[in-house]
Amino acid sequence: MNIREQVSLKPYNTLGFEVSARYFVYADRLETLHEAIQYAREKALPLLLLGGGSNVVLAQNFAGLAIVLGLKGRKLCSQSDGDICLLSASAGENWHELVTWSLQQHAYGLENLSLIPGNIGAAPIQNIGAYGVELVDVFHELQALHIHTGEIQRFNADDCRFAYRDSVFKGELKDQYIITDVTLKLSQKPNLQLDYGPLRGALEQSGLPITPQSVSTAVCTIRSSKLPDPEKLGNAGSFFKNPLVGEDQAKRLLVENPCMPAYPQPTGGVKLAAGWLVEQAGFKGCSFKGVGVHDQQALVLVNRAGGTGTQLLDLAQQIQSKVADLFEVVLEIEPRIY
Ligand code: FAD
Ligand code: NAP
User: Whose CA is nearest to atom 13 of ligand 2?
Assistant: First the structure.
């Protein structure tokens, strides 16, 4: 195990914040992961787990051991009954590369989740979702290492308690497990979900036959046209979750704002578009010290140049406060703050 000291975490967070870790290890083998946990336990160090670093705000130097999870490996197994195939991948596999590979193998179900940054190990943490599909829709099971006992345990979908951008690993079991492998249940027969916002229109406009591959291409095209590439402009994707409000409040807000996007949920309540609220509050395209809000998507906070996590959280707080004043809606931050 190669433990390094005082390592910059700038290359390991897509916001590109310049903070350091007191101790650092790149774990590309399970054995290294066990050794790293042991090392942290002996020295009573807190742990910071990182995959692709695309859903974290590193707001200060980290005084413990940062572990970048690089476990690799993937396999696809057809099932004898029906059209199902199981795709298993180790935590450090890049998510979008897996999506592309699964489509090449004629295993379908991930097309709407194309181009989400990060690794598969983090995908269950917030039940990643886009264009009307969530991880839970294709999830079979995962394996995770219990940080305190070192045991590997299996979790099925019920165990994970997936919800909108949420799972048991953000709640009751927060910081207790390291996900090492994830298995997805894909289908050899396409079952396309096109009823989300601009997706069907974009496909029809492209003139391409509607296939899982062309859906993936359309998702990539739409995403690239409105979301900043973290390589060019530091960001962590959507900074706030879409808020869920009661039906009475949604009705009241719609009277005052007839154009407000509002999506009634099957489980009750109405989902509002956080990006729309931030835009109405006047923050779209703004700059504040080294950080700001993207000019094409108000839900994405960006590191313009040499910004810091503290500046970003300060801006987020200003946005939350203005949105609360205007709409009486509480915006909850999506990325994990360290
Ligand atoms: P990290 O940021 O490294 O980690 C996130 C959290 O999970 C941290 O708390 C970390 O400690 C923990 N963690 C990571 N790996 C493990 C593991 N193996 N075991 C236990 N804990 C772990 N998200 C969506 O849901 N939908 C989108 O469409 C989407 N679009 C995005 C677009 C952009 C441009 C960006 C920058 C982000 C976007 N995101 C989106 C957010 C992000 O990409 C996802 O949440 C992704 O799953 C995070 O993966 P990661 O490997 O980068 O996780
Ligand atoms: P968008 O198409 O501009 O839509 C704005 C919001 O309206 C989205 O947040 C979406 O909610 C909601 N919405 C749109 N059509 C809907 C429908 N038919 N039914 C229910 N809700 C609907 O969104 P965008 O910002 O370009 O993002 C496109 C997709 O990628 C979204 O699913 C978004 O969640 C995902 N994305 C996520 C992140 C992240 O970091 N979490 C970053 C970028 C994009 P939902 O968000 O619930 O889908």
Answer: 197
Q: Tokens representing 245?
A: 């409000």
pLDDT in tens, 168-202: 999 999 999 999 999 999 999 999 999 988 899 99
Active site residue 134: no
Catalytic residue (choose from 93, 216, 334, 336): 334
Q: Longest C-alpha distance within the chain, in Å? A: 61
Residue 190: name the closest of 78, 136, 101, 112 by CA: 112
Asked about 29 being catalytic, the answer comes back as no
- Closest alpha carbon to 221 in 296, 115, 299, 110: 115
pLDDT tens per residue, range 254-285: 999 999 999 999 989 999 999 999 999 999 99
- Centre of ligand 2 to C-alpha 117, Å, is 15
Using CA atoms, how far apart are residues 245 and 285, in angstroms rounded to an integer?
Answer: 26
Helix (H, G, I), strand (E, B) or coil at 10: helix
Per the CB < 8 A criterion, the answer to whether 244 and 306 are in contact is no
Could you write out the DSSP letters of every residue in 136-176? GGTEEEEEEEETTT--EEEEEHHHHT-BTTB-TTTTTTTTT
**205 contact partners, CB below 8 Å, separation of at least 6:** none
Q: Whose CA is nearest to atom 20 of ligand 2?
A: 263
Rounded CA separation 166/110 (Å): 19
